[in-house]
Write a structure and sequence with these properties.
The chain is of the alpha/beta class. It is built from twelve helices and nine strands. Bound molecules: ligand C2E and calcium ion (3 copies). This is Diguanylate cyclase.
Length: 276
């Protein structure tokens, strides 16, 4: 096969190289996506179960590719993290979310918070605190209404850099959330070392409620622990009335999930009403 030109060439390029080529193409596209304004933020409501009030929104990135359509974050955030592109993408996310916050506050969502996801590479890049500080000033963001979500794993590595960055943001009036709580290596130590305000219970613990006795026990424990540490608790992946009932009964502070709304464009979010 080696001799027959193109085909032979292909013969010696197994599928793994195809994957590598596709990655290169994707990376080049992703670089352009930022400039061409193909990235967009969707917003998913976060609801206070007792009142039905929309207390917050999580900003979730989407890539609107002209040919491929809507590309979810799981398909490009890992690549953005590996290539370092996440630093500029992350800056765009923070600025866009703060701008949206100003608009939403002016349109009746006057006490809404917006939560933004931040990758470890952004924290380690050392530019994060300045990016946040500038966005807070530029868009006149009230204290507490920007939330930065970081996953547990961030707190386990590079602790000094992480601690310094999180404390600096906390001092700026940004609230901090532990995302995907319970899925990492939960050395619970970090919860008291870092200035967290919010704990987000991962949807893996919610989906089999109320039937799963194990998950029920774990969620009960997370609520008790989080509350005794003074944290506000958000349950992710709330999909059914039973989930809502279980969590409301146990005083879970906030709920997020398809039961209420999927993530949506800002224009659609602007038309939402509280669930009262
Ligand atoms: P995450 O931070 O855990 O975000 C929650 C994910 O759960 C979102 O997926 C959301 O659409 C989905 N979700 C919401 N409600 C439900 C539900 O009731 N059931 C189920 N099964 N899923 C639900 P999405 O938007 O695809 O985002 C996936 C992940 O991508 C996020 O997970 C986050 O880790 C990452 N990501 C999203 N936006 C950004 C960003 O701007 N920057 C960074 N660094 N990462 C981001
Ligand atoms: Ca999140
Ligand atoms: Ca999460
Ligand atoms: Ca996640």
């Amino acid at each position: 096969a080696k001799e027959d030109g193109r085909n032979g060439f292909r013969f010696f390029r197994p599928n793994m190289n195809r994957a590598a080529e596709e990655r290169l193409v994707l990376e080049a596209w992703l670089r352009k996506a930022l400039e061409k304004e193909e990235l967009t933020l969707y917003y998913q409501p976060i609801i206070e179960p007792k009142t039905g009030h929309i207390a917050g929104a999580e900003a979730l990135i989407r890539w609107l590719h002209p040919e491929k359509g809507l590309i979810p974050p799981d398909k490009f955030i890992p690549l953005a993290e590996e290539t370092g592109l996440i630093v500029s993408i992350g800056q765009w996310v923070i600025e866009t979310a703060c701008q949206a916050l100003k608009e939403l506050h002016a349109s009746g969502f006057d006490d809404l918070y917006i939560a933004v996801n931040v990758s470890p590479q952004q924290i380690w890049s050392q530019t994060l605190v300045d990016v946040v500080k500038n966005a807070l000033v530029q868009y006149d963001v009230p204290k507490g209404s920007l939330v930065i979500e970081v996953t547990e794993s961030v707190c386990m590595a590079e602790t000094e850099t992480t601690l310094t960055a999180l404390k600096a943001m906390s001092d700026l009036g940004v609230r901090l959330a532990v995302d995907d709580f319970g899925t990492g290596f939960s050395s619970l130590n970090y919860l008291k070392r870092y200035p967290f305000n919010i704990l987000k219970i991962d949807r893996a613990f919610i989906s089999d409620l109320p039937e799963s006795n194990d998950d029920a026990a774990l969620v009960n424990a997370m609520l008790a622990m989080g509350h005794s540490l003074g944290l506000s608790i958000v349950a992710e992946g709330v999909e059914t009335e039973e989930h809502v009932a279980f969590l409301e009964e146990r005083d879970c502070d906030l709920l997020q999930g398809y039961y209420f709304n999927p993530p949506m464009e800002k224009e659609k979010f602007l038309k939402l009403k509280d669930y009262t």
